Amino acid sequence: MVTRTSILSRNLLKSVFRPQNYSTATVTEAVVKEVPNKTGDVKTTRVGKWIQYWKNVYRDYKTVFMDIGTQMKENPGKSSLKILGLSSLGYCTWANPDADNYFTQVLENHLRLVMVPNSIRNASSEKYIHTLETYHNLNLLRHQTFGIFSIVFKEDFSDHLEVYKKQCDYLHPSYLAYLKERIVDVGFLNHWYFMAKAMENYDVNPEEWKSTESELGS
Q: What's one GO-annotated cellular component (predicted)?
């Protein structure tokens, strides 16, 4: 005999395990709603961080310049000296001659000597420029910058030559030898001083006056 309790239990189990009819479109829509667009969220986060970074940079620089302006108003004399010093260093750095500038000066001085006749050409100036050209052709000249000035010095070997004497540290000349014997020129404010000194009287031949004096004396 079927009791009332067994009938109720059977109906309850049927209602629980009854298959549901879900369409594919309904399931897809539900999944799309539940799963967030992680790619979009990451992209938005990166853009936000990038914008925030540049905002912080702008804020920091603004604070620094405001502090500098306040200090300049409080100490105008000291601030003027600092600005003058920094400007001078900046100009010296900008006008620091490089290796191309040096070799261009050598070429220009060579052309000046060529335009002068042999009778009045200064032999010392000609020898100086000829020596520099020889060093340059042998790849023995080196340029070294120190920020606000530069030097050109002479090495014993070319960069393309790999002999034992060049590679052995014990056979290299000392720094004192470089300072005394190997510095060829010093450049400052787009000017090479040793070369300018050698070319001062490039169109004056002292030997010409000696020969003239000897002729007059005889």
A: TIM22 mitochondrial import inner membrane insertion complex
